[in-house]
Fold these 2 entries.
Entry 1:
Amino acid sequence: DLSGIDVRAEIERLRKERNAVILAHYYQKPELQDLADFVGDSLELSRKAAETDADVIAFCGVTFMAETAKILSPNKIVVVPDMDAGCSLEDSCPPEKFKAFREAHPDHIALTYINCSTEVKALSDVIVTSSSAETILQQIPADQKIIFGPDRHLGGYLSRKFNREMLLWPGVCIVHEAFSETELLKLKAQNPGAPIAAHPECPPTIVDHADYVGSTSGILKYAKEMAGDTLIVATEPHIIHQMELALPNKTFIGAPGADGNCNCNICPYMALNTMEKLYLALRDLEPRVEIEEGLRLAAKKSLDKMLEMAS
Ligand code: 13P
Ligand code: SF4
């Protein structure tokens, strides 16, 4: 029972006592974004985790992100508010099936989205995030055959944009799949002139209407640079918090699902994290991410390749 405890003050006290850094993804609740030392996209958060001199990383995101932090910073204690914060893309790609798929295509390299398990990273050649995928893909020789997993929408988008055939793993993000083209077009008609920014995890029915397609940090940058004062945002709506902080005079509208509002596009995994659970994680240093050393080193290879090629 946490009643009577000033959770925010306790987080502040424990953050100093533990020499902890709090990292948060843009899809976290506003209160978690506000107290984090750093808020960013998947690539930026990986870089922060690799660089930090804190003793403890408290990772407010989903577990594949916290595992990435542990792979890159093995000597730090990495804790998460809720170990059940998974990802539908990770779930779509069991390591043994991915291994069999790779073995069936020995002449292909595996270019793999960071939204996957540590085991799948260990079975991959190069990891990409949505902000680094285009730069990395352009460095791979044109005659090199590629398996892209687990997000078929990001893979399909890259494949169309660069006119490059890839074997796509059939995974999807349940959040970005939930946007409705019909409702989006209605919203667009109600807001004539407002551009649409979409994450490449969206299906083509959404991405094809977008004026800008990119990662969370890319969408945020687009919001800052666009000429108009209204933007339709087709990604998880919690990112709108950062837009409203940075651009109080502009209007941001979350793209709708089939029910006409954007609440169905809240990531249920990201939403498991709360202030109370973050407090408990800092207090108890649990739940803690641990990765067997052989597996960690195998996964680190493909992640290091990303960090090298993304810069
Ligand atoms: P980025 O923040 O890297 O764009 O990733 C989005 C996402 O869905 C993370 O789960
Ligand atoms: Fe996974 Fe989609 Fe949630 Fe991101 S938004 S963590 S891709 S389910």
Entry 2:
Amino acid sequence: MKPTIALVGRPNVGKSTLFNRLTKSRDALVHDIPGLTRDRHYGHGLVGEKPYLVVDTGGFEPVVDEGIMFEMARQTLQAVDEADCIVFIVDGRNGITPQDKIIANRLRQSTCPVWVAVNKVEGMNASVVCADFFELGLGHPVAISASHGEGVRLLFNEILEDF
Ligand code: GDP
Ligand code: MG
């Protein structure tokens, strides 16, 4: 079965950058799924010989400030609902924010497997940065750089092992 992997996280952590990296260099965008909504993008990804569907959430930007917490929670739940696995992206240059905590709370209540990807860590000490994000209570964080490509293949290899 081809798993669906959803990218979730607050605005600006690098979801779309990662989505673009995973789906680039091939005709990867999906336009023909029934019920496709405008606040999510779907694309075909491939690790080795294993195909998967990747979902970029976060089409809620730009949005008024007081709505964003609600929107993030809603979109996170929606992603969990339709995905086989979640990649929860956080910003390794910022540390944990209140918005990260809201999303983490939602994700801890779900039975969907969750991977915490600490993004933007190029040129940083990955293990030191990742240690900060254990506090989210979602297991061992994995360091990546979506824009430089570091750690991305490793992470998706590991994720796809379970499918
Ligand atoms: P989204 O709102 O979560 O979809 O985040 P975007 O993919 O739009 O990225 C937000 C900003 O972070 C952009 O300016 C990206 O260029 C930058 N960004 C994304 N990934 C990385 C990364 O791995 N390293 C660094 N330094 N910047 C990144
Ligand atoms: Mg985006």
